[in-house]
Amino acid sequence: MSQLAGARPGTDKLLLDTEQETRGLTTLRSETTSPTRAKWHDKLSRWVLVVDIAMIAVAVCLTYLAKFGLAHDLPLSGVPQVSYEIVIVIFAVTWLASLGANESRNPSILGAGIEEYRRVLSASMYAFGALAILSYLANASVSRLFFAMTLPVGLVLILIGRWAVRQRLVQARRRGEATSRTLILGDQLDVERVVRDLNKNPEAGFLPVAVSVTDASPDETDRVHGLRNLPYRGLIPHMAMFGVDTIVVAGGLSSEEVRRLSWQCEELQTNLLFTPRITDVAGPRMSLRQASGIELIHVDLPRYSGAKFWVKRSFDIVFSAIALLLLWPVLALIAIAIKLDDGGPVIFRQQRIGIGGEPFTIHKFRTMSVDAESKVAELIEKAGGKALLFKMENDPRITRIGGFLRKYSLDELLQFWTVLRGGMSVVGPRPQVAREVAEYTDDTHRRLLIRPGITGLWQVNGRSSLTQEESVRLDLRYVENWTLTGDISIIMKTVGVMLKPGDDAY
User: Please, what are the domains in the chain?
Assistant: First the structure.
C-alpha cells in the first residue's frame, strides 16, 4: 500500500489480480445493484408518469369543453366515422409517447437543473408537429383550437406538475432519501472539492458515503470531510460494504484506468460520472469533435454582444414592464409603509458600476436610516477594511420596516424600473459600488462584461452563506455561460428564495 504514496504504478493499479477480480465481480454483481436506488428510481418515474397523464388529460378536456361544451359524438370533418373523442385520445397518447421517447422521465435528470424542462418542451413540440403533419396527410380538418389551446395549456400544466414533483423530491433528498450513494475518486484536492460541492447541493441527489484518494494511501489520509478513504487498489470489493451505486471520478486516472473502471461499472450496473477538468464552462459551450480517431472537446468562446444579447435585452424590457404593471399595488403599499415608519425618503438611489465600468443609478426602496451612507466607511473599517461584498449581520442602520422588506427581498422590486431604464438586467452579476470595484482583480473585472442583475446565480446558490470567492466564481460563471432558458430557471428559483426568510440585500 505504501506504493500509492509515491510514484504511480501502471494501469493495473485500480484492479485486483485477475483471479480476485473475476471472483469479486461475480460476487458483487448482485450486491452492489442497490435495491433502494432501483426502488426510488422506479417510484419517481411512476409518479412523473401519473402527473403527465393527469395534466395532459386536463388540457385536452379543457380544450374539448371550450370548443364544444358538453356535446357528444361530434364527427371530424373529412374523416368518416371519426369523432373528436378519438382525436383527443390520439393527442394524449402521442404527447405521452413523445415525452417518454425523449426520456423526459429519466431519473438522472429529475430533481435539479433545466434539462428536464427542456426535454418536456422539445418533446411537446415534436408531438404537436407530428400531429399537425398527420392531420394534413389524413385530410382531417382538426380545429385550430386543438393546437392553439391544448399545447400552451398542457405545457404549462405539465411543467407545474413536474415542478411539484421536484419539490417533493428535493425535500426527500435533503432528508437523505431518494439519493444515489456515491463514492468520489481522484486526487485529494479534487475529491475534497467534489465532496464539498455535493454536500452543499443535496438536491442534486448524490450522497457522498466514501472516497478513494489516488495520490495518498488510506494510512496517510484516513478520512476526507468525515468520509472513509477506501484503498485505491482493490476498490471494487469495498463498494458493497458502503452500498455504493455511483462513482464520481474527480481526476487522477489515466485513460487506461478510466476504461477499465468503466468496464467494471458496466458489470456491476454502477453509474459512472466524471467532473469536467474545465471548470465553470456550461454544457452548451462544449461539443465533442472527432478527427482520425482522436476525440477532442471544443469550447466555444464567450460572446458578449450580438443578436443573443439583443434577445436578453428584449426579454428584460418585456419582463420588467409586466412586473411593474402587476406589482404596482404592492409597490404603493411599501412606499406608504416606509413613509409612515420614519418620515424619510421612500426611494433609495445610489450610483453603481454597470456594464463596461459605466456608472448608473440604482433604485430601491429605502431600508436603512437616512444617514446610512455616512456610516459605511466606519463599519467597513470595523469589519476588517474590505469593501468588496461588504455585509454585516444585525446592521444597526436598518430600519424597522426595512428589516421586514429585506427579509423577503421586497426592497428589490423597485429595481425593475432600473432594468426598464437600461442600467440593469433581470438576471446578472450583483451590481456593486465604486469602492468594491476598486478592489477587483483582473479576473473579477470580467463581471463588468454584461449588465448586473436583480438576481443571479449567487442569490439562488447559498446567498449570504457563500464566501467572497464563491460569490465571484458564480458571477463569472454566469457571465460566460448565460442562456435565456437559464435566466428563466434562475427567476423561478428566486421566487422560492424570496419566500424563505433571509437578510440578503444589495
Answer: 2-31+179-275 (3.40.50.20), 36-174 (no CATH), 307-498 (no CATH)
As a dihedral over the C-alpha atoms of residue 148, residue 154, residue 156, residue 162, rounded to 10 degrees, the angle is -160
- The SS3 call for residue 374 is helix
Pick from 405, 404, 462, 468: nearest CA to 436 = 468
**396 vs 369, 399, 401, CA distance in Å?**
9, 8, 13
Eight-state DSSP code of residue 201: -
pLDDT reading at 268 higher than 80: no
- H/E segment holding residue 237: helix 235-242
Res 415: pLDDT: 93
Please state, in angstroms and rounded to a whole number, the distance separating the CA atoms of residues 204 and 140.
Answer: 46
Nearest Cα residue to 410 out of 475, 461, 471, 338 = 338
Please report which helix (H) or strand (E) contains residue 478, including its range. helix 468-481
* Alpha-carbon distances of 147 from 74, 80, 152, 162, rounded to whole Å: 18, 21, 9, 22
Q: Which residues contact 180 (CB under 8 A, 6 or more apart)?
A: 37, 205, 206, 207, 245, 246, 271
Grid-cell match 415534436, residue found: 126
What's the pLDDT tens digit per position in 274-333? 887 655 565 566 666 666 566 666 666 666 667 788 889 999 999 999 999 999 999 999
For residue 118, how many other CB atoms are within 10 A of its CB? Answer: 15
Helical ranges in 102-233 per DSSP H: 115-137, 144-148, 150-174, 188-200
* CB proximity list for 103: less than 8 A, separation 6 or greater: 109, 119
Q: What type of residue sits at position 390?
A: F
Query: What would the DSSP string read from start to end of 402-420?
Result: HHHHHHTTGGGTTHHHHHH
The pLDDT, as a whole number, for residue 273 is 86
Instruction: Please check whether residue 173 is in contact with residue 179, taking contact to mean a CB–CB distance below 8 angstroms.
Output: yes
* pLDDT given at position 191: 87
Rounded distance, CA 291 to CA 128, Å? 37
Dihedral of CA atoms 147, 153, 155, 159 in degrees, nearest 10, equals: 180
Report the alpha-carbon distance of residue 143 to residue 191 in Å, rounded: 58
Which DSSP letter does residue 187 get? -
Rounded to a whole number of angstroms, the CA Rg of the chain reads: 28
Task: Determine how β-strand 286-291 pairs with β-strand 227-229.
Answer: unpaired
CA-CA distance, 489 to 114, in Å (whole number)? Answer: 7
Backbone angles phi and psi of 289, in degrees to 5: -120, 140
Residue 48 has phi, psi (to 5 degrees) of -65, -40
347: three-class secondary structure by DSSP: strand
